[in-house]
Amino acid sequence: MTLWASRLREFHQSLGLTLLQWEEHSGIDATTLSRYLKGQRLPEIGFLAKLDVTVQARTGAGLKPEVKAAVRAEYLAACLVHEPQRHEVYVLRDELADAHTRLTAAEQTVEELGDQITAERHRRQALEAGLRQLETAAAEALHGLEELRRERDRALADRERLDELVREHLVDLELARRDLALSTHLHQEVTRALAAAEETLDDTLLRTAEATPDPPAPAPEQPGPPRSRWWNRTATDLARLREATTQAARVQLPDLVERLSGPGPWDVDVDLGSVGSYNNADVSRLASAIDALIREATRLAAEQALLRGNLNAVFTSLSRRSQGLIRRQLSLIVEMEQKESDGERLTDLFRLDHLATRMRRNSENLLVLAGEEPERRWSGPVPLVDVLRGAVAEVEEYHRVRLAAVPPCAISGGAATDLVHLLAELVENATVFSPPHTAVDVTGHALPDGRVLLQIDDAGLGIPADQLADINERLARPPVVNLTASLRLGLFVVASLGRRHDIRTQLRPSDTGGATAVVLLPTTVVEPVHRT
After folding, report:
1. How far apart are CA 499 and CA 525, in angstroms?
2. pLDDT tens digit sequence for 398-441
3. Domain spanning 376-528: CATH superfamily
4. What is the spatial distance between Cα 292 and Cα 286, in angstroms, rounded to a whole number?
5. pLDDT digit string (tens) for 191-231?
6. DSSP string, 330-393
7. How far are the Cα atoms of 83, 118, 124, 325, 326 from residue 131, in angstroms, in the given order?
8. What region does 264 belong to: left with phi over 0, alpha with psi -120 to 50, or beta?
9. What is the pTM of this model?
10. Cα–Cα distance between 357 and 526 in angstroms, integer?
11. Distance between CA 26 and CA 3 in Å, rounded?
């Protein structure tokens, strides 16, 4: 207690207070304070707080934390020596206070964790709502596609009716030709009969003249048969009609169809004019029938071009709307992947990411059908290996694809997105039409002239020779969008994207029994890699 009393007296002397002044500040009578200073009595622990109050009242500032800790330690040491039970009580109080502090901190942590769990539940609910909206949008898109298919079927039915009408007019034309041939033969027979009659008449007149001494004056010479002049005019009219009809069928109509198939078909003038007017009534009626046939053909061609333009507009609208929703879904999935730590749920999110990527590619197929350019484009060259990896990443069974021997070159930014789309279609076909336990190999070779040859090999059952020839024909010359093209949408997309950048694609039998897709990249899309 001597050390504690000595330290207390030092405080008392440093403050310069009398016992009465100390009593006034601390509320402890002077006699008790005198006993504390002499070491005759050990104060309660609350005396330490009153000592801090006294120092603050005297100096205007309380004890520093380290001074408080030192005073408390000396006090507890004095308690341990002189009053061990009191020391034990004080230590237990400190431990209880510390435990209470830790309990309060733990409760606060639990509360924060509960808030985080609630926030995660809200985010999960938002994701589920977004997925439901996406499913609804996908269902609407599928419904729209069904409507388009029905409209396409109606358009095909209209075209079949047009073909039937053309065939009927051709039959009528053939009958008219037969009638013309019959009329020609009849005219020839009549002409011969008239000539024979004239010869007989001349002979009769000659014999009569020889038998009569004073023959009458000869009659004036009569002009030729009127039917002969009619036939000459008819033949001339038919020649003119044949020339005008040939010009309309072989030049004007194909040129009109080509202009209607290009951009802006609604600005094309579909009036081809008439095949002409003729004096002969039969030829004039035939010309009127041909004019009606040409007008009907031009009207149907214009309606078909307008329908094709409307279908392209619908394709574009559906694709744009779907791509907006898919972009939002991909952003949400990426955000969830960054926040997710559970391995199983993260795997499910990766699968959902791949599914959304495939949906985006299918949506872009509608833009290809409509002849539109993609929205995603690169500003600069992209390494070929990154293009191949991007194409593989858009395939569901990407783990089966093996990349090997990729030449060190780059693809121009304007063609990189379309090449990713083209290769993804080919790689997906290779994975779909080959056993699931086999691998799909993708290799590349740089040719001496600067072009690049890519090969996609699968171990499937192969393709029959007749079908292979038909597929390569479609890849070389993509047809107009029709029902057949929609049934083989992947081939149509590959052919259309290849034609856009002069990329040649061909399917060949593989050495392993499957099929090999060969893609030849021209020098216009291949660029060297600039190493730094």
Report:
1. 13
2. 889 999 888 999 999 889 988 998 999 999 999 988 998 999 99
3. Histidine kinase-like ATPase, C-terminal domain (3.30.565.10)
4. 10
5. 443 344 345 434 443 444 454 444 444 444 444 444 455 56
6. HHHHHHHHHH---HHHHHHHHHHHHHHHHHHHHHHHHHHHHTPPPS---SS-EEHHHHHHHHHH
7. 72, 20, 10, 10, 10
8. left
9. 0.46
10. 26
11. 22
Residue 113 identity:
L
Collapse the DSSP code of 327 into the 3-class scheme (helix H, G, I; strand E, B; otherwise coil) and give the result. Answer: helix
Helix (H, G, I), strand (E, B), or coil: what is residue 509? Answer: strand
The per-residue pLDDT for range 48-69, each reduced to its tens digit, is 778 778 777 777 777 788 877 8
Structure tokens at 499: 């034609």
Q: Which residue type sits at 130?
A: G
- What gap in Å lies between CA 178 and CA 99, rounded to an integer? 116
Dump the DSSP string for 44-76.
Answer: PTTHHHHHHHHHHHHHSS---HHHHHHHHHHHH
**Does residue 384 contact residue 347 with C-beta atoms inside 8 Å?**
no
What is the DSSP code (8-state) at residue 120? H
10 Å Cβ neighbour count for 123? Answer: 14
Contacts 24+ apart (CB under 8 A), 350-358: 354/393, 354/394, 354/396, 354/398, 355/396, 356/326, 356/329, 356/330, 357/330, 357/393, 357/394, 358/394, 358/395, 358/396
Which of 443-469 are b and which e, b meaning 16 or more Cβ less than 10 Å from the residue's Cβ? bbebeeeebbebbbbbbbebbeeeebe
Rounded Cα distance, 492 and 479, in Å: 8
Q: Strand runs (DSSP E) across 242-394, as ranges?
A: 382-383
- Please state, in angstroms and rounded to a whole number, the distance separating the CA atoms of residues 473 and 503: 15
Q: Where along the chain do its domains lie?
A: 2-82, 133-200+231-373, 376-528
Eight-class DSSP state of 119 = H
Rounded-to-integer distance, Cα 189 and Cα 183, Å: 10
Residue with the two structure tokens 């890699």? 529
410 three-state secondary structure: strand
The separation between CA 260 and the C-alpha centre of its own chain, rounded to angstroms, equals 27
Q: How many residues are there in the chain?
A: 532
Of the candidates 374, 349, 343, which has an alpha carbon nearest to the alpha carbon of residue 497? 374
Helix (H, G, I), strand (E, B) or coil at 402: strand
Token couple for 412:
């121009």
Q: Smallest Cα–Cα separation from 217: which of 207, 228, 226, 209?
A: 209
Distance separating the N- and C-terminal Cα atoms of the chain:
80
| CA 327 and chain centroid, separation | 10
Whole-angstrom distance, CA of residue 275 vs CA of residue 477: 34
What architecture is domain 2-82? Orthogonal Bundle (1.10)
